[in-house]
Amino acid sequence: MATNAGSRRFRSDPGLVARMSVTMFLIGALYVAVVALLIAQHVSVGFVVVVAGGLLFAQYYFSDRMALYGMGGRIVTPEEAPELHGIVDRLCALADMPKPRVAIADIDMPNAFATGRNPKHAVICATTGIMRRLDTEELEGVLSHELSHVAHRDVAVMTFASFLGMCAGMITRFAYYSGLFGGFGRSDDDDDGGAPALIIIMLVSMLVYIVSFLLTRTLSRYRELSADRAGAYLTGRPSALASALQKVTGDMASIPTRDLRSAEAFNAFFFTPALANGFSISSLFSTHPSLDRRLEQLAKISVELGQPVA
Amino acid sequence: MGLLDTILGRSKPVKPNLDALFGLPSAAIGLEASIGLKPTGSGSVCVKPTEGGGFAGLRDQIDELLKTDNDKYDETKDSFGFSWITRTGSPDDISDLVTDLHAVNASLADAGFGSALLCTLVVFHDRTNPPIGLVYLYKRGTWYPFAPIGPDRRDNQRELALKAAIGNDLPMESDLSRWFPVWGAPGL
To answer: What is the pTM of this model?
Structure first.
């Protein structure tokens, strides 16, 4: 009885999971294709992978410190920020997860982010702007979304997914240099095939980069929807999260562009993306789903949760 | 959460463990014998109210259930939006208290709101000190003490002494970072 009622109320979304799996599969398939191409062209695969992997590992390993430093976030004690700590305490107890460090960034842009290589090294950060604008329940909704990112290990997943994009970018450069320095010293019988093959590699790797970029962005949008869903279930209040989204998005649009541009690099970690005004961007390139899409999902969850008790 | 759930980004709401509550009465006897703490007869269930008609309807049912019991119940909402359903009864009958609290828990869990349960708090006191709470975390199935002194300070020394006194009778939370404070909880 308990399990039946429980599973009816808290549904997972098979469609969302399926779309995300397909995206991940395509990213993986591209990765395999690139490696195969490299091996076919006698490029030192090891070198490319080690360099790209090393850079990404550093980004992954130091993600908490980098994001905090970049946003000017400061770790706060429970005495300094009792309300924020109180909300995080309760959410972690509800979700049975270790409590991340709590930070505040002293900027007026309303936003929040969570980062860190695993739940034990996670940091959750809210700006003073978002704490000023939202009430407790809305802030709780935002923090539950961020905690879901931590629980889903989104930093690790997204870092891994962008590995391919970086690889492809490096191959482009690598192929260019090996053409410049290696190509001229080749023996005579290679002269006819060398240059066109090089151009083909470069074109292919650029194409690979574009496709992988689009796929990573798609994956990022699915992860956002997943975090919205998990966060809404955690608090049991999808409408509070929806209201926070509307407030924050409305505020984001009315803020001077200069602040936003300097923050755009951190979009991947954010609750809502900071996009500069006048920069028309297609939804295809966006790290976050559209507001309508997110509100629609939350409204659906709200209906499901509100079903009468049998 | 398993690897597959991580990769697919779906965390499931955690199911509560309700049964460990019944270890309390025997632990309370040991507590009185060892450090002189007695139950005040106050205990409460803390739950995060889910929005919508389902939860509201269930709450009406619980209210009906509780009203029949001579108005020993009280419901308060704290500043974080959590509801505390408090029962105040005779200090001598702690197993009665535990049974009543379990009834509230079970009706919530049966209706599918088990993941909304935060904690249960049972309050103890002695002659000289302010009251101290024993908090039960449903999701972990463990207990920890909470001894507030003043608006935002807690008496860690007393909490650790209590843990040492009943560590064998109840499953105590070993990760101290999970002993989160419940400021302003009813009865404390």
So the answer is: 0.80
- Which of A78, A74, A123, A80 is CA-nearest to residue A98? A123
Statement to judge: residues A170 and A148 lie in one domain: no
**Whether the predicted interface score ipTM is above 0.95:** no
Cβ contacts of A280 within 8 Å, gap of 6 or more: none
- The predicted pLDDT at position A277 comes to 40
- Do A170 and A286 lie in one domain? The reply is no
**Residue A127 near residue A111 (C-beta atoms within 8 A):** yes
Q: What's the domain range around A240?
A: 64-153+221-305
What is the DSSP track for A248-260?
Answer: HHHHHHTS-HHHH
Q: Does A188 share its domain with A297? A: no
CA distances from B21 to A94, A218, B94 (A): 17, 46, 11
Residues A127, A37 within the same domain: no
Whether residue A50 sits in one domain with residue A39? yes
Compute the average pLDDT of residues A91-111: 90
Strand order from edge to edge, sheet including A123-127: A73-75, A101-105, A123-127, A112-115
Tokens of A32: 């395999």
- Which chain B positions have a beta carbon within 8 Å of A232's beta carbon? none
3-class DSSP state for residue A261?
helix
**Is A3 domain-assigned?**
no
Task: Nearest chain A residue to B184 by CA: give it.
Answer: A86
Q: Work out the number of other CB atoms within 10 angstroms of the CB of residue A306.
A: 18
Overall number of domains in chain A: 2
Taking an 8 Å cut-off on Cβ atoms, the answer to whether A230 and B10 are in contact is yes
A146 is catalytic: yes
From the list A79, A83, A137, A146, the catalytic residue is: A146
**Candidate from A79, A94, A305 with C-beta closest to B52:** A305
Residues A204 and A226 in one domain: no
Co-location of A101 and A171 in the same domain: no
What share of chain A in percent tops pLDDT 90? 23
Residues A90 and A40 reside in one and the same domain = no
